[in-house]
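Hello,

Our lab assistant flagged a job as stuck in the queue for most of the afternoon. It eventually completed. Since we weren't sure the result was trustworthy after the delay, we are filing this so someone can double-check. Below is the sequence as submitted and the structure that was eventually returned. Let us know if re-running is recommended.
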Amino acid sequence: MGRAFEFRKGRKMKRWSAMAKAFTRIGKDIVMAVKEGGPNPDANSRLRAVIQNSKAVNMPKENVERAIKKATDKDTANYKEVLFEGYAPHGIAILVETATDNNNRTVANVRSYFNKCNGTMGTQGSVEFMFDHSCNFRIPASGIDPEELELELIDFGAEEVFEDEDGILIYAPFGSFGTIQKELENRKIEILSSGFERIPQITKKLTEAEMADVEKLIEKIEEDDDVMNVYHTMEE
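-- returned structure --
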């Protein structure tokens, strides 16, 4: 198995563990998708993907419809995606993805988390290069051979295809998202969920005590409502 498989295995059960947090993130994704491409999922591939993800976290349909309607209101604030970079204790690189309607608030909050947990906030580009920006799709495993599918999707950008207990996962570079989404839809293959992740190129092994120091910072950052994802180079 490749790096994507190991990365996914390490993060399993951690991401979106709190249902309320998941709904908040989906709501923000809906607003950004609607503001970018309109409220019609058929004409807005990004919104289609968000709706698929809402089903994956069991978000009620009425919540999704309400969020789409709210997003079309001119008075609804738009969210801007902002990336923060820095180092946790023991030389672990940290990458923080946020969606915020108040950048000053988010900058101040994220900086305070680094400072309180003996980390260091970095400048733009200071650690981003240590991660590969990838996209992923989860599809049902029934009737599909992962190895055969991987060979068929290589021409569309797929780099790694593997099966776990929840279905088949397809990983590809960030820029291949639209191409693979379109191909899966053309093949009438159901997309259970999709998204983007940053996979560390190299990880660092720490002692249990050192890991606790890093996890303290990560947990603090993840509690912030503006934070969508936190990535790091600590071996899990």
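-- support follow-up --
The delay was a queue issue, not a problem with the job. The result is valid. The radius of gyration is 18 Å. The chain has a mean pLDDT of 91.
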